[in-house]
Amino acid sequence: MKNNLYNMRCLDIYLSGLSKEQYDNIKHEIDPSKMKRGPLVSWDIFMDSYQKKIRDARKSSEIKQVYALAEKFRWRNDLKLAFKEYEYEALVITDLNQKIIWLNDGFTKMTGYSKNFAINKSPKFLHGENTSLEAKLRFREKIAQNKPFKEIIINYKKDRTAYNCEIKVIPLFNDNTTHYLAFEQKVR
Fold it and tell me: What's the pTM value of the predicted model, to 2 decimals?
């Protein structure tokens, strides 16, 4: 049965790639009464699966890059747990002066700013006219407390479109805090 479904899928793919003239030349060889139809496998289904594999591979690569930095700076955080618990579009690592030292491709996709532009800048460049002073003050206070926290702040893309950004920040430490890791995603 599985083999027959596989053959049908292959036939579907093959036939979909033929021109009308090519199909007309072989249609007499196809006897639908002898074929058992299974679910049609479409290109959309394949592409959804393929895109998921690409996203998973990209995420795995990003996590490996963060682990490499963790090894370099001897961070003792449980990063496996953090990546398991927190969803994100963008990952941003800053130093103690809040200068960006590393970010993922999701940051560019979410904000429109290139990695090269953002490196060595403070994430404050994403703020704009509707970024509330209260949210900025809460952010500073929470950073000073040196504990993990979550904040929602209005940021601006490169094209100056505002968006609500949920940011989960984790202080990264060895003997002392050396950096901060932010898990960021757009929220409504």
Answer: 0.75
Residues 84, 24, single domain; the answer is: no
Q: What is the DSSP string of 1-13?
A: -HHHHHHHHHHHH
Q: Which domain holds residue 29?
A: 2-41
> What does the block give as tokens for 59?
């995420």
Q: What confidence tens digit (pLDDT) does each residue in 8-56 have?
A: 556 667 777 778 888 788 877 776 666 655 555 566 666 777 888 888 8
Q: Return the CATH number at 147.
A: 3.30.450.20
Please compute, for residue 184, the number of CA atoms within 13 A of its CA located in the half-sphere on the CB side. 24
Q: How many angstroms separate the first and last alpha carbons of the chain?
A: 47
Q: Would you say residue 58 lies in a domain? A: no
CA distance 7 to 1: 10
Cα 72 versus chain centre, distance:
24
Please say whether the beta carbons of 123 and 98 come within 8 A.
yes
Decide: 113 and 76 in contact? Cβ < 8 Å.
Answer: no
Classify 98 as helix, strand or coil: coil
- Identify the burial level of 21 via C-beta atoms within 10 angstroms of its C-beta, where 0-12 means exposed, 13-18 middle and 19 or more buried: exposed
